[in-house]
Amino acid sequence: MNRNTYRFMISGMHCASCVAKIEKSLKAVSGISDAKVNFADNTLLVDANQDLLPDTVINIITELGYGAVLSVDLELEEQQRKSIEQQHYSALIIKTVVASLLGVPLMILGLLGLEPSLVSGSGKLINLILGVATFAILVYSGGHFFKGAWKALKKHDANMDTLIAMGTGIAWVYSMIAILFTQQLPIMAQHVYFEAAVIIIALVNLGAVLELRARRHTSDAIKKLMKLQPKTARIIRDGEEIDVPVATLEIGCQIRVRPGEQIPVDGELTSGTSFIDESMLTGEPIANLKKIGDSVIGGTLNKNGSFIFKATRVGKATVLAQIIQMVQQAQSSKPPLARLADTIASYFVPGVLIIAIITALIWFNVGVEPRVAYMLVTSMAVLVIACPCALGLAIPISVMVGIGKAAEYGILIRNAQALQQAGELTAIILDKTGTITEGHPQVTGVYPSQNVDVKYILSLAASLEAGSEHPLAEAIVNAAKEQQSNLVSVTDFKAIMGHGVTGKIEGQQIFLGNHSLMMDQKIPVGGWLQRADEFAQSAQTPIFVATDQAILGVITIADPIKAHAKNAIARLQKMGLKIVMITGDHQTTAQAIASQVGISDVMAEVLPQDKANRVAQLQRQGEKVGMVGDGINDAPALAQAEVGFAIGTGTDIAIESAGITLMRGSLHGIADAILISKQTVKNMKQNLFGAFFYNIIGIPIAAGILFPFTGLLLSPMLAGAAMAFSSVTVVANANRLRFYKPSGANV
What is the DSSP letter of 315? Predict the structure, then answer.
């Protein structure tokens, strides 16, 4: 069954329990196979069958007490997000200020011992007025907490809002009871907590303000990618050139691109030539020459020529749009570490409520006087300090920033599991062709027999190979063109599987192939055999050109090693990784290539279908394996490995099978990805430790565990401040990743 992936913007989430509630509710719906909430950027990805309508998802989320809007356009979504965040940010600032205007003076009066008395008539009146004012602030500045708590209660659930609403609400209710029934309370319990209620609301809102400020840079990678696409394109319609929005472009449109402009969508050049800067994909600073028939990619930069191209992919089908989508989906995925946080979050709020009740019971039954006051202060502090905001943000905020950082280096990480596992690898298997080498064989030499012309040998070889699609054939034909060797007609052409080709040229039978072909045809090789072995040992493939009587000469072909391959492999080895080269080539040729780049472990003469078995073989030896490849035949091995690295210049099938795609084609991307992975996982663990440690230490202190030894209790206001700033600390720590630069990165 065909499936769709829908993206929604979610509003009203406050903590990890909100995330767990939404995901659990959606996964229980028939037709939805997966639902992933990204608390860091308030988005939801839903994988569903085609029969399920987005409205169904929206209705479910609305019933849960949250808001949801279907995202149909990335740019529009970013604008909406910015607008919503700005409105929310401004509203929170006003709410914080309003609560502070009452809370700060009340707190100062309390510290100075000047609070109004509850036993005098005037004092009672003032306190009643303060009670009404506090209630108004709870409604205005803290109303969103009480609404969220009520919605959760109706669903027999509890969340962060529940804790805040209960803590501040109980403080207000107790204070009003103390005013109205002062004489019925012990003297030590005749106290109001209006300042605690409003200061807690102010501090929690202030924490949210600071958190929003810190979050603003977490989606920088997406914003940078979106800026690569121009807003308008100049199309040619009825002989006239007009500017239209990029969103209106259709396949087949003829589009004019002038010097210095970015190409709006993917297409094929139909008129003119130009040099295109494709560094956003390849990382290479040198512009590539594009001529008629060549493909161009949306988002790349036209340097100095004017040309016309036909649109072949528009909208979400363009390479740039798919890259953005891949990054977004990866940022919404969850690494294995997140399972721990999710499990704890699902039990966290109910657990805190139980701890608060136990705390209240202990203080009421065995606490010191005034028991009621101590019971209120400690249980309120427990409720406020334990809000799981930091726990909910700990993993997703690091994932979001880490995957964005990787995208800056041309590393597209498909999911957070690959992000986490990349840093755990112990061995890397490198496919030779297209990974270590360029993947485009070239003729490196032509060695004729006596009295035979170089051009003549190339003419014979190229004429035989003219109709072949084999990479070696292409190299020979290109070399013949460069030498201006003329092609001649061939009759009785025949391909000999695994050996070469043969055909008649001007009535003479010509053979082109390897040593085995010469042996089969009983063509004397003589001294050429030793030279052929020497060529093979230097990683050059010898191709014999012969008549049925004698060798006319040898053409050597080699696949050039990538410029950065040797340095990148040395860098990986310095990181303690075992590097293995795998290839279908002969052992001698494979060893020659491996020695040039510093690899000692070689798997040669491996059939395409056996590559995955070789990966499994290393895994059975206890290695955590990363497989790097670019071809269709690498796909099973890429899928078998703990992490598959696809070279971005390779096939779509290889890229689909890999967890990580290296868009720039450089092996330095592997080291960069591993270092970014390690740094991101380290950041996740720091955040998780911070969130857990904060609650493990904070809750017992709030409950009064230090009181018997020190006589100190944690004020609910300080608990509110600690809770508010814990989330800010997590976000700030994650944002440190934005400034991380992998050591030796090739940028």
Answer: G
Where do the DSSP E strands lie in 283-424?
288-290, 295-296, 301-302, 307-313, 411-413
Average pLDDT of 245-274?
89
CA atoms within 13 A on the CB side of 458: 23
Cα first-last separation, the chain: 42
H/E element, 280? helix 279-282
Confidence of residue 651 (pLDDT cuts 50, 70, 90): very low
Residue 403's H or E segment, with its range, is helix 389-408
Q: Is 431 among the catalytic positions?
A: yes
Q: Range with the lowest mean pLDDT among 388-392, 477-481, 531-535, 635-639? A: 388-392
CA 356 to chain centre: 39
| pTM for this entry | 0.71
Question: What sign has the CA pseudo-torsion 492, 520, 441, 578?
Answer: positive
Q: How far apart are CA 592 and CA 559, in angstroms?
A: 12
Quick one: DSSP state of residue 254?
E
pLDDT in tens, 21-55: 888 888 888 888 888 887 767 888 888 887 778 88
Q: What is the DSSP string of 475-538?
A: HHHHHHHHTTPPP---EEEEEETTTEEEEEETTEEEEEE-HHHHHHTT---TTHHHHHHHHHHT
- Rg (alpha carbons) of the chain, rounded to whole number: 35
Catalytic residue among 161, 431, 585, 672: 431
Instruction: Find the DSSP H helices in 586-715.
Output: 587-597, 611-620, 635-640, 652-657, 668-703, 707-710
Residue type, 612: A
Phi, psi of 447 (to 5 degrees): -120, 95
Question: Among all chains, which residue has been given the structure tokens 């913007």?
Answer: 9
How many CB atoms within 10 Å of residue 271?
13
- CA atoms of 290 and 374, how far apart (whole Å): 78
Residue 549 CB neighbours (<10 A):
10
Q: Which amino acid is at 565?
A: A
Which residue type occupies 362? I
